[in-house]
């Protein structure tokens, strides 16, 4: 063989997400030849012989070997120039917003925000002198009337919580580009397997990697992905605030990512199977899942996403019926959060939207009888049987 023909000298770049989640970003040569990236549990690194401050390695600078493998892999999954892992999803959201906004600026945010994000924009951004204004993400025509000379950014979520509504992302991006706004999206519910928002035109994609990206309910982490300069600016904010991810958590996140494509296929399928079962059940008044043909955003979700996601919500009519249902579940776990291999069930009234008064919840469609399911990867037959016996009450 010539050198050109030898397999060791051939360079092959994986193209499919199923392959990228396993191999993208892997250090070459591998550290000590290890197939799995070792945990480099060192806060600081030998700096001898270096003359460039940028070469300094330090956990708070997000540049240990464990961080760098994750950054390259996540950037590949999002088709981004760069990516950054940080200490939590809220750290990622804060880094994205604070890297763009300053006192006197104005930001447009989608309504029905995740509770932690709502608290950040309503309390912390306001305290910093940043004006926040909400809009209905499904009605992008509202944006023009809310635009100000000081508007700098627009913030959305891929799918709303808990009614899994789909914003008019294409119109929102067009508006942002027309007016020179930085567009950011929390893509946690979708993951890169179902949706790559940077390809659609968003500037920054944010994730709570605590959820699907890790997939095992055992770490807290966040991701910022996008244009290199914008990710670097978010990294500077986190470097100042100290929101670094520990190398051991990086190791666990890298391990979780390797099965993301497999897990999302089951999450998507299980949620849709559960939604269809619930839609036929006489004790259920309404089911919210974009995979159902009667969901108001089904057509948009079908156009934008490769899968409908693992979250659904349904209404059993009353506070008492919802409490009774959760008490009777035997396979599903009653707990907040989502994205793990186990199916989690919660009541938004008592968890994600507990900080709102009853009238505010009603305006958002959060009824007392609403139950949210984050479908895991168990056998769908067992999950449906569990719901069937619980609903029998």
Can you give the helix content as a percent range?
25-40%
Terminal CA distance reads 72 Å
- The total count of strands amounts to 12
Structural class: alpha/beta
Strand proportion, as a percent range, falls in 5-15%
User: Numbering strands along the chain, what is their spatial order in the largest sheet?
Assistant: 1-7-6-5-4-2-3
Instruction: Say what the CATH topology of the largest domain is.
Output: Aspartate Aminotransferase, domain 2
| Known CATH architecture of the largest domain | 3-Layer(aba) Sandwich
Number of helices: 15
Shape: globular
Mean pLDDT: 92
CATH class of the largest domain: Alpha Beta
Briefly summarize what is shown:
With 393 residues, the protein is an alpha/beta fold. 37% of the residues lie in helices and 14% in strands. The strands form 2 sheets. Strands 1-7-6-5-4-2-3 form a 7-stranded mixed β-sheet, sandwiched between helices.
Q: What would you say this structure looks like, in words?
A:
This protein is of the alpha/beta class and 393 residues long. It has two domains: 17-257, Aspartate Aminotransferase, domain 2, CATH 3.40.640; 261-391, Aspartate Aminotransferase, domain 1 (Alpha-Beta Complex). The chain contains 15 helices and twelve strands. The chain has helices spanning 17-23, 65-78, 89-98, 115-127, 143-146, 169-178, 191-194, 197-200, 228-241, 247-257, 260-279, 298-304, 319-328, 358-363, 380-391, and strands at residues 82-86, 106-110, 131-135, 151-157, 182-186, 204-208, 222-226, 286-288, 311-315, 333-334, 344-346, 370-374. The protein has a seven-stranded mixed beta sheet, sandwiched between helices. Helix 1 (17-23) runs antiparallel to helix 2 (65-78). The radius of gyration is 22 Å and the shape is globular. Mean pLDDT is 92; it is low at 1-10.
